[in-house]
C-alpha cells in the first residue's frame, strides 16, 4: 500500500531520482507534458553558425542550448565559448554542452541577465538563441543599451491539449506557456497549490487562477520539487 500523503502533477519531465526523493517524503508525482519542443532548422543559420557561436552566446532556456548543440553544431565542441545564461537548469546544460566555456554573466531571470550583460561594458554584440515564445525583456533591454542582438529562433513551443481528470494537491509549472496550455483545457480544485519556477511564471498563473501560488527557491527542476516537498512537509507554516 502506498504511503503517499500528497499527489502532485508535474508539467514537464523530471528524473526518476527526483520522483523517488519525493516519494520518500510522502509525495507522489505524476508527469504530464503540456508543451512540445520542436527544433526549427534555419538554412541561413547553418551557413553562419561558426560566426554566430564566435560571439557572446546568450541562452535563457536549456532547450536552446541542447537544440543548438544537437541540430546545428552536431555535438561538436566550441572552443573558448563566451556565454551569458540563466542560472539553474540552463546553466547546467551550458556547462555540460560547452565544458570549456567562460560564463560571462548569469542571473535567475532574463531581465536581470540583460542588466548583468550591460554592466560588463565590454560586450557589444551577442548571438541570442531562443524559442518562438521568448519574452521581450532581455533583447529589448540589450538593444536599448546599444548592444547588437543577433536573434536566432531555433525551436518552437507547441501546446499539448490534455484533459486532467484527477484532483491534485499541487501542480508544478515551469513556464508561462505551460500554464497557458494547461488552463486552456483544465480547471483546478480550490485547494490545489500552484508552484511556479519563477516570478514570471507566477505572474502568468494569476491570469488563470486565484489559488495559492508558491514560487520555487531556484530555477531548476530539483529546486521545484524540493520547494514542493518543503511546502507539504511544513504545510502548517503556510496557513
From TrEMBL:
Example GO BP: uroporphyrinogen III biosynthetic process
Pfam families in alphabetical order: HEM4
InterPro entries in alphabetical order: 4pyrrol_syn_uPrphyn_synt_sf, 4pyrrol_synth_uPrphyn_synth, UROS/Hem4
Domain Tetrapyrrole biosynthesis uroporphyrinogen III synthase: 24-226
Biological classification of the source: Bacteria, Pseudomonadati, Bacteroidota, Chitinophagia, Chitinophagales
Molecular functions per Gene Ontology: uroporphyrinogen-III synthase activity
SUPFAM superfamilies linked: HemD-like
GO annotation, cellular component aspect: cytosol
Organism expressing this protein natively: Chitinophaga niastensis
Protein name as annotated: Uroporphyrinogen-III synthase
Amino acid at each position: 500500500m502506498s504511503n503517499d500523503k500528497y499527489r502532485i502533477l508535474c508539467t514537464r519531465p523530471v528524473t526518476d531520482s527526483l520522483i523517488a526523493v519525493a516519494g520518500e517524503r510522502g509525495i507522489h508525482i505524476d508527469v504530464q507534458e503540456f508543451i512540445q519542443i520542436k527544433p526549427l532548422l534555419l538554412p541561413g543559420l547553418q551557413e553562419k553558425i561558426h560566426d554566430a557561436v564566435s560571439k557572446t552566446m546568450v541562452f535563457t532556456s536549456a532547450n536552446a542550448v541542447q537544440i543548438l548543440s544537437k541540430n546545428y553544431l552536431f555535438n561538436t565542441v566550441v572552443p573558448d565559448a563566451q556565454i551569458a545564461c540563466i542560472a539553474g537548469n540552463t546553466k547546467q546544460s551550458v556547462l555540460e554542452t560547452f565544458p570549456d566555456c567562460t560564463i560571462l554573466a548569469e542571473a535567475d531571470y532574463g531581465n536581470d541577465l540583460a542588466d548583468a550583460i550591460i554592466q560588463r561594458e565590454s560586450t557589444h554584440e551577442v548571438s541570442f538563441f531562443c524559442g518562438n515564445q521568448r519574452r521581450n525583456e532581455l533583447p529589448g533591454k540589450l538593444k536599448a543599451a546599444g548592444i547588437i542582438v543577433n536573434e536566432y529562433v531555433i525551436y518552437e513551443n507547441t501546446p499539448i491539449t490534455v484533459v486532467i481528470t484527477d484532483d491534485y494537491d499541487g501542480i508544478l509549472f515551469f513556464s508561462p506557456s505551460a500554464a497557458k496550455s494547461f488552463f486552456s483545457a483544465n480547471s483546478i480544485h480550490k485547494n490545489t497549490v500552484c508552484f511556479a519556477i519563477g516570478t514570471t511564471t507566477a505572474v502568468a498563473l494569476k491570469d488563470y487562477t486565484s489559488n495559492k501560488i508558491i514560487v520555487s527557491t531556484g530555477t531548476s527542476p530539483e529546486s521545484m520539487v524540493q520547494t514542493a516537498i518543503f511546502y507539504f512537509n511544513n504545510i502548517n507554516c503556510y496557513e
